[in-house]
Amino acid sequence: MPRRPHRSFAVRRSLVTLVTAMVVASAAPQAAGAAAIRPREVAPSGAWSWFGDPRAVYHAGAHRRTYVGWVTGAGDVQVASYDHDTNERVVATLRQRFQIDDHAHPSLMVRPDGRLLAMWSAHGGSQMYYRISTDPEDVRSWGPEQVLGTNTPGPWGYTYPNPVRLSAEGERVWLFWRGGNFNPSFSTSQDSGESWAPARTLISVPNQRPYVKYAPSGGDTIHMAFTQGHPRNLPTNIYYARYRGGMIQHADGSTIMPISSAPFTPAQADLVWNAAAHGGAKAWVHDVAADSAGRPVIVFVFF
Q1: Which residue from 234, 220, 270, 230 is spatially nearest to 50, judged by alpha carbons?
Q2: Of 17, 135, 147, 176, which sees the most CB atoms within 10 A?
Q3: SS3 of 101, please?
Q4: For each of the chain's 303 residues, which pLDDT tens digit applies?
Q5: How many helices (H) and strands (E) does the chain have?
Q6: Do residues 91 and 29 lie in contact, with contact meaning Cβ atoms separated by under 8 Å?
Q7: How far apart, in whole angstroms, are the C-alpha atoms of residue 100 and residue 257?
Q8: How many angstroms separate the CA atoms of 60 and 54, rounded?
Q9: Measured between alpha carbons, how far is 118 from 54 in angstroms, rounded to an integer?
Q10: Residue 284 in contact with residue 231, Cβ under 8 Å?
Q11: What Cα–Cα distance (Å) separates residue 232 from each residue in 206, 229, 273?
């Protein structure tokens, strides 16, 4: 990661931050023999990496609950639920002693049947793992650990899972990650994560590693804000594209290409920040979302 930037282009508190704050504000009973935790903590240690999302989700079904995932200082992959009506909190361990690295945290998605899908990998790991909760809206019991089993070719493994479901597409799940070729990759599942199509490259930048933030909105759109590489390696720009209705599009809705023809390149997307036009100031993407009118909003820094 680059050093802390000195100037911020925009600041916005994300929904993830808000719902996570709700979780950590609850009192946490201490199990016998457990490491001491303070009243406002959910666990004695834990970490997230910036580009694996969602790290926390809120779901209102039979219960109003927030679900959060992290990796502990011992390398355990954990998920917690917080009930907003009863204040009950439950913590479950999906994998013990996996990897002591913030990149190993689980990304979460609520399936149409209310069961949770949790996906994680090591930093550049040899496999992407996932588990599906046994019961709806309940993290106490989980099905067996499974592997994605598909990746783009290359030596860089799996990093940064991003599972996304669009209500307009029913059971289909989109999974984005940094693949074996060091580029953003994707697969789809037509059965809410039970099986997966062969991996494809989404954004192609030879000899670089783009960093992408993904965000669904409106039930039919996936927004993408990204760089063309790591800012330690080159002056990085910020780009935008979106998926909707089988197409990769510009922000104005014009077509870049069908997603079936992917990958696309940064040059084909919308240029949001041009480092060369700003004295070589490198940019780093922090978040993307949509406003009430469905227009993309991007948070990034330059330094």
Answers
A1: 230
A2: 176
A3: coil
A4: 443 333 322 223 333 333 333 333 333 344 445 556 555 567 788 999 999 999 999 999 999 999 999 999 999 999 999 999 998 899 999 999 999 999 999 999 999 999 999 999 999 999 999 999 999 999 999 999 999 999 999 999 999 999 999 999 999 999 999 999 999 999 999 999 999 999 999 999 999 999 999 999 999 999 999 999 999 999 999 999 999 999 999 999 999 999 999 999 999 999 999 999 999 999 999 999 999 999 999 999 999
A5: 1, 21
A6: no
A7: 40
A8: 16
A9: 10
A10: yes
A11: 16, 9, 17
Q: Which residue has tokens 């060369």? A: 276
Task: Record the tokens describing residue 98, joined without a space.
Answer: 């996996």
Beta bridge partners of 298: 288
Q: Is the peptide bond before 54 cis (omega within 30 degrees of 0)?
A: yes
Q: Is the pTM of this model over 0.85?
A: yes
| Domain ranges (residues) in the chain | 10-201, 204-303
Helix, coil or strand: residue 230 = coil
Q: How far apart are CA 119 and CA 239, in angstroms?
A: 26
Structure tokens at 297: 């909003």
**Residue type for 276, please?**
A
**For residues 144 and 52, what is the distance between their CA atoms, to the nearest angstrom?**
22
Closest C-alpha to 178, from 197, 195, 201, 194: 201
Q: At residue 178, what is the residue type?
A: R
Question: Which of 274, 223, 267 has the alpha carbon at shortest distance from 249?
Answer: 223
